[in-house]
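pinned: reference chain
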Amino acid sequence: MTLTPEQQEILDGKQGETRAKMMEVVVRYGDIFHADKLLDITHKKSHFVTSFGLSMLKPVYPLMDELIAAGCKV
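pinned: its C-alpha cells
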C-alpha cells in the first residue's frame, strides 16, 4: 500500500506509539483487501457500531482511553 509522507511518519512512530499502532492495524487491514492507498475522510463525524451491546466493549475501553489521550481522531 502506498502511504503519504504523513501516513508513513505515523507508521514510523514519529507522531507517537499509539498512532503508530493504529496505523499498523489500518495498513494491515488495507493489505488484506489489496488497497492501493488510504482514502481521505472528509466528514468530521464517524459512526461506532454497538449493536452487539455496550458490555461487549468493556475490553476495548482502555484502548479507547489511550486513543483519546493520544489525540487520535477520525
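why pinned: The chain is about 45% helix and 0% strand. The longest helix spans residues 17-32.
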